[in-house]
């Protein structure tokens, strides 16, 4: 049945994790997914402690993900898919092992730590035939999906410009040299991969721009910087884009914008008008028209189309946020598993989105300061 409860195992999300509990809450929000097992930490005692915290049987918690995959594959009530919530360098080996062991995979972004790994993972996904999705969280917001539908309907006219920015200030100082574990792995090339800010939040901005505009980036001109002295990876990105044939765009991502919190903002301009969406007010989508008054759309309102109204859980005026956006991706992924269908008819980001994200990171880092290059 398409509404069956889907069993999930998690890799990562142990003590001190930020994103692991977020994934768990989102997965279980609609009652469609249940966490049943995991390799939450490489320390087996910590993994079992995490299991107790999540309310699952500690006997199904392991210190090694390969051991967990083997144990779950042998059970009649074993997990049906694996959520990956680890630092970037673990994404590829876990995803590959899980897919080859017969599990579908829903991974935190980016797909992998390198472009070469992403290319190999795409082959594994194709060879195994199992589902693979990415939690590009912002694609789960109802009004982001409504914005995408508006552009595709041609309401704005032909797209002429795309501007996306994602600003944070939490890395404005060298907090990776303190006991901040979240900063430490993001600033470590061995764990983060070749990109710092660009791989952490730049890929979100890149994905959001392509998701809503419906256009693929074809060329980039990158200026990546390490602003904080001694930081080995970029913490500030300024990138000119070309979409499709020759539609201009701008992507700005920074983690040293002191005082900023989680400032993702997307604007898409067409021949007849533009749209404006901001993550810090996600229940509002503004449409600015060339020759008529500005229009404000509200989440869950009855005038929205199916793309924007369907994901909402509460009446208009009752804000939904980050957890709910995550949950929309989990709900769509669970429905695809239960129905036996693919992800093609859903907004869930796939391995192709992951591959494009890693190509974006790799090309920007390799051609930093070199002018225009093909993506």
From TrEMBL:
<feature type="domain" description="Gfo/Idh/MocA-like oxidoreductase N-terminal">
    <location>
        <begin position="6"/>
        <end position="133"/>
    </location>
</feature>
<dbReference type="InterPro" id="IPR036291">
    <property type="entry name" value="NAD(P)-bd_dom_sf"/>
</dbReference>
<dbReference type="InterPro" id="IPR051317">
    <property type="entry name" value="Gfo/Idh/MocA_oxidoreduct"/>
</dbReference>
<feature type="domain" description="GFO/IDH/MocA-like oxidoreductase">
    <location>
        <begin position="144"/>
        <end position="275"/>
    </location>
</feature>
<dbReference type="Pfam" id="PF01408">
    <property type="entry name" value="GFO_IDH_MocA"/>
</dbReference>
<dbReference type="InterPro" id="IPR000683">
    <property type="entry name" value="Gfo/Idh/MocA-like_OxRdtase_N"/>
</dbReference>
<dbReference type="Pfam" id="PF22725">
    <property type="entry name" value="GFO_IDH_MocA_C3"/>
</dbReference>
<protein>
    <submittedName>
        <fullName>Oxidoreductase</fullName>
    </submittedName>
</protein>
<dbReference type="InterPro" id="IPR055170">
    <property type="entry name" value="GFO_IDH_MocA-like_dom"/>
</dbReference>
<dbReference type="GO" id="GO:0000166">
    <property type="term" value="F:nucleotide binding"/>
</dbReference>
